[in-house]
Please model this.
Amino acid sequence: MTASTSRHDGSPPVTTKRNDAPGGRIPGAGTILRMNLADTTAIVTGGASGMGEATARRLAEARATVVILDRDAAKGEKVASDLGGRFVQADITDPDDVSPAMAAATALAPLRTCIHCAGIGWAERTINKDGAPHSLETFAKVIEINLIGTFNVLRLAASAMSANEPDENGQRGVIVNTASVAAYDGQIGQAAYSASKGGVVALTLTAARDLSAAGIRVCTIAPGLVDTPLLAGLPDPQRAALGQSVLFPKRLGTPDEFASLATEIVRNPYLNGEVIRLDAGIRMPPK
Ligand SMILES: NC(=O)c1ccc[n+]([C@@H]2O[C@H](COP(=O)([O-])OP(=O)(O)OC[C@H]3O[C@@H](n4cnc5c(N)ncnc54)[C@H](O)[C@@H]3O)[C@@H](O)[C@H]2O)c1
Model:
């Protein structure tokens, strides 16, 4: 069978020969050297809950040895034991916590994957209704956890990965950060949060460039509204209304939809330096 596609720009049609056998495929398909996670370690920060937990489960299914880094010991231990992995209690902002976690991960197998999900939300207006200014302490705290914590994990993971042997793609590792659509469409009360996530977006290409010589890729996912414990505190009608505000499909995202994309970024060697919105087309209104 021959398929022809005419082009609108006047260039000649593209002709693709197809294999007529059932399950036949377009020539060239199936030639991606996807990253093999067996006999490697994946560290997942924030892996005790929400999107981090879902990603840890997907990576374990893909046969990576998973190390959960989280400050929540009870939930982190439980996820790690479910997955036959390891838990390390750590605060992402503290180098003295994160360095031993990287060492623990590399002791198990080469650390080739770092998924950074740990982060916090925050709501506070630049000035409140009485004109009082945003607390500088809370602004700095959100930047410290969401932005400085991201860079702390990224730099220490990259340093550990740089000692790996390159794989068949010449790659030593991959790092996936988590931003938010608030980096682009920050809502009222999100000054600190959107600034912190905007920093993660801006860091992505620079870090990918810095780490290219070491064969380490860096991408970021910017989720929209995802049904995790972060949103579980809201009453059901409010969560349902949030779902209705999404373009299509009209619902909240699931942690596993994030995990699926994170795993694809890890396995697809051609994704690098990019921030991907995972938001079903939502553009957040001012409030
Ligand atoms: N849920 C959403 O709708 C949504 C949307 C956009 C972006 N995000 C971002 O996605 C990421 C994951 O969010 P989630 O919804 O899965 O949240 P979650 O609260 O379910 O999980 C976050 C995890 O991070 C851990 N954590 C927080 N601060 C930490 C620190 N300093 N050190 C170590 N661990 C720490 C928590 O203990 C928790 O286990 C966050 O960065 C969040 O800002 C979430």
